[in-house]
Design goal:
Length: about 850
């Protein structure tokens, strides 16, 4: 902020908008100067532009005075170097550039420039050599206007907005091949999104026309135009419109809190953001179009780019039709053929499998006819080009099923869906039989799959010999022929997916999906087993199961639809109940829990199955707010001690002890002590760590601080060794509570800082509210009861809003702080501070608490 000579901040009057000086020669670029003025005014800034004319001062004095009063410098250059004034050795254009060295600068150069003057070439070379300032190239006044508007917005966000504001969304998918023939469309769509009224743009067109690739190219080019970047959501696995908010939240890494609905989670995560959101493959969930409208209404800075085969039919949408690539007319010369977009794409992809391939007089006619027969559809061309390693263009052309120049029409997707289906069928028929069999079985996956998962689904199921090939080799064949594509997963494993049109086609070839789904269930049982606490689960195992959630939901839906026994899957799910609670998958509103709950009503086939069902009910009850599960645990615990694995018994004891903290400390201590002993005997470090966290908290409440700290230090050591960030956050938090109970604010502060950081990484609001409670105690230690009361208010408001229920021992730990703050603030002062705290967000409260935290962190956090 500017500061006056007296030390006070300079306060701008309403007429003092930021001034943007525009530098260019007056002999050219009239349209570009107009576009620059419009872009600057669009952002409510003041354009400062030197114009020739009668003036009371020499031109040099005029533009130098203008520059002295400007805040930002924009330079626009093309071919002319400009006028060199009397007594000057450089032009006014270069003089303006040099005088602006202390200002933020944006420089743009128009291309092509066949007649560029030497002076300007030398000036531009000096800019490049300096390295500190780069310039961007543009080709038209419209493109320049878009660049200036975007770059100014970004500059203002970086220089005058808060540091660290930009969101860290998952990286945009990175196609391995270049986009061909769509440069003009990319620029046009990007311009629509940045222009007035361009908050919602829908890319429509046939399946395989390249809507997704175009959207990714637009997002990649345009993400720098928004302070909060761009994010991508693939909706192809989603068939239920009601699940669209869940899919968006999952793709953006937004975690629901308590009773918060998925749409509310997304609205909260995007509120205040200035960003581009890409929603891909929307045509199968069109009934969710109001969700898009709701997001745009709740986030004024949001822009949405949708790909769909039909329009959304919501107010404000702008449609951009993604047509097939242009094909050359019959009789075209070789030069014309080579420039046709469809031919360029085929040639480019053919070189991927046949390096050195070129268009020649001998093959040009066949390639051109092939592009016409495939109607210029990008996916069809890529599938055809994949066969160039084996066949010539003439041979590929001869294998086509028939002319495709006049495809039939469909109500929602005319012509090109039939064309794409024919193309997929043709490519499918050319695959060897084992690869065709594998492709059909891969259609059961609802999420990206690994090679190991593909092998598992390939079979054979006991008594089933559906797939008779080498699954890995067949997977490679499918990848070579573009029938599957590389994909990203949360666990970072190399993965693949079927494009939705291919997946639908492949599913139609699967007469009976039962065997493949049975194998998928068996594979998921292995994934669940690896994530089970009995193996001391690592974070990588949990992230792997995160990635498999859509596939797990697919299997659960199949079991429910066909009335199949669910005992094995329920037991495996009950083994990972701790993981599911931590990850939020067992909250009562979750899709996963809604699918699991009806299966718990099935009649168990054994005592172990009955225990597993009961245990999942305990988990569900615990998540609802610690509705008393003591009776159920009492009922199943005798059988559990006799037949269950020790670590499961330890968890049952832990659940009962947690519930008893409310009114029976002695019984709770006995449960925790036995749970710890059983978990230690079982050799399960993760369960040991969680038991120690709760056991130590109770000991702290009872005044046994030394033993509490010892247990919590051991829990932190375990958390670091197994890589469990949630346990690490818990351990830092309870260590802070121990320190506050001992009156040691210096130790509590860095422990709380570490706990906040880890809970934030996990989007764990309940944990953050506990940190607010502990921070209020720290504020009292620092002599700030006002801050303490506000933090208490924020924690209560967040818990009320999301229906969050802390562990039963937490209110007991927080009550002394609440009583002390109320006593220190007489009259209505405590209530006023409490109300002020309830009106702020959790992030605002944590920011307000920063001054009472020390900068240092505990070692090895």
């Amino acid at each position: 902020m500017p500061v006056s000579d007296g030390g006070w901040p300079t306060i701008r009057t309403p007429d003092q908008r930021l001034r943007v000086f525009v530098s260019s020669t007056l002999e050219e670029l009239a349209a570009e100067r107009g576009a620059a003025r419009a872009a600057i005014e669009q952002l409510r800034l003041a354009p400062v532009m030197f114009e020739a004319g009668a003036r009371a001062h020499p031109p040099q004095e005029v533009y130098r005075a203008y520059l002295e009063q400007s805040d930002i410098f924009v330079g626009i250059y093309w071919q002319r170097y400009g006028w060199v004034g009397p007594g000057m050795t450089i032009s006014g254009l270069e003089d303006e550039l040099r005088l602006a060295a202390g200002l933020p600068r944006l420089l743009y150069v128009k291309v092509p420039a066949p007649d560029r003057e030497p002076g300007l070439s030398q000036m531009l070379e000096g800019i490049r050599a300096g390295g500190a300032t780069a310039y961007k190239r543009f080709g038209s006044a419209r493109e320049l206007g878009g660049l200036i508007a975007s770059d100014l917005a970004m500059m203002l966000a970086e220089r005058f907005g808060g540091a660290g504001r930009a969101a860290r969304w998952p990286a945009l998918p990175a196609p391995v091949t270049a986009l061909v023939g769509r440069d003009a469309e990319v620029a046009e769509v990007a311009g629509m999104l940045t222009g007035p009224g361009g908050r919602l743009v829908v890319l429509t067109g046939a399946g395989g026309a390249g809507k997704t690739r175009l959207a990714l190219a637009v997002a990649g080019q345009a993400r720098e135009r928004w302070p909060d970047g761009a994010a991508f959501v693939d909706l192809s696995p989603v068939t239920d419109p009601a699940l669209v908010p869940d899919a968006i939240a999952a793709a953006l890494g937004l975690v629901g809190q308590g009773r918060e609905r998925p749409l509310e989670t997304v609205q909260r995560g995007l509120a205040g953001r200035a960003m581009l959101l890409v929603l891909d493959n929307f045509e199968q969930v069109l009934e969710a179009a109001p969700v898009v409208a709701d997001l745009l209404q709740s986030a004024p800075g949001l822009r949405v780019l949708v790909t769909s085969r039909v329009v959304l039919r919501v107010r404000g949408e702008q449609e951009w039709r993604v047509d097939p690539l242009g094909v050359p007319p019959p009789g075209s010369t070789l030069a014309v053929l080579a420039e046709a977009p469809a031919v360029r794409l085929f040639t480019d992809r053919a070189r991927d499998v046949q390096p050195g391939f070129t268009l020649t007089a001998g093959n040009a006619a066949a390639v051109a006819e092939l592009c016409r027969r495939l109607d210029g559809l990008p996916l069809a061309l890529e599938l055809a080009a994949a066969w160039m390693r084996l066949l010539t263009p003439d041979q590929i052309l001869a294998r086509l099923p028939g002319p495709l120049e006049h495809p039939g029409a469909l109500a929602d997707l005319p012509a090109r869906q039939q064309t794409l289906t024919g193309t997929i069928q043709w490519s499918y028929d050319l695959l060897p039989a084992p690869a065709r069999q594998l492709l059909a079985r891969l259609s059961v996956f609802a999420a990206p799959f690994t090679a190991a998962a593909a092998e598992a689904v390939a079979g054979p199921d006991p008594g089933d010999a559906v797939h008779d090939g080498d699954a890995v080799q067949d997977l490679a064949t499918l990848l070579d022929h573009s029938m599957i594509t590389p994909a990203e997963r949360a666990d970072g494993q190399r993965a693949f997916r079927l494009l939705d049109p291919i997946r639908r086609f492949a599913a139609a070839q699967l007469t009976d999906p039962g065997p493949a789904l049975s194998q998928l269930e068996r594979y998921l049982l292995g994934v669940l087993d690896a994530a089970s606490p009995q193996h001391g689960s690592q974070d990588r195992d949990m992230r792997r199961l995160d990635s498999e959630q859509p596939n797990l939901r697919t299997v659960l839906a199949w079991i429910a639809r066909d009335g199949r026994p669910a005992d094995k899957l329920i037991r495996a799910l009950s083994d990972v109940w701790v993981w599911m609670l931590v990850r939020g998958h067992l909250r009562q509103s979750s899709t996963l829990w809604q699918q699991i709950a009806p299966l718990l009503a099935q009649e168990p086939r054994s005592g172990g199955d009955r225990l597993a069902r009961a245990w999942l009910l305990v988990a569900g009850w615990t998540n609802q707010g610690f509705t008393n599960p003591i009776d159920l645990v009492d009922e199943i615990l005798p059988d559990a001690r006799r037949v269950e694995k020790p670590w499961r018994t330890a968890l049952m004891l832990l659940a009962r002890g947690i519930t008893r903290v409310d009114n029976a400390h002695g019984q709770a201590r006995a449960d925790f002590a036995e749970a710890l002993s059983v978990a230690q005997a079982a050799g399960d470090p993760l369960i040991v760590g969680y038991v120690q966290a709760h056991y130590g908290a109770l000991l702290c409440l009872d005044g046994d601080l030394d033993q509490a700290r010892a247990l919590h230090q051991e829990a932190l050591t375990i958390a670091r060794s197994v890589g469990d960030e949630n346990l690490r956050a818990e351990a830092h938090y309870v260590l802070a509570v121990d320190a506050l109970a001992a009156g040691d604010a210096g130790t509590a502060a860095p422990e709380l800082a570490a706990a906040v950081r880890h809970y934030r990484n996990l989007s764990h609001f309940e944990g953050l509210t506990r940190c607010l409670g502990a921070l209020s105690g720290l504020a009292l230690k620092r002599g700030d009861p006002d801050l303490a009361a506000r933090l208490i208010g924020t924690a209560a408001a967040v818990r009320d809003r999301f229906g969050l229920q802390p562990w039963p021992w937490v209110p007991q730990a927080e009550q002394p702080t609440i009583d002390r703050a109320a006593a220190l603030l007489p009259g209505g002062e405590y209530a006023a501070q409490l109300a002020a705290g309830r009106s702020q967000t959790i992030d605002e409260a944590l920011t307000a608490a920063l001054p009472i935290l020390e900068d240092r962190q505990p070692a090895g956090t």
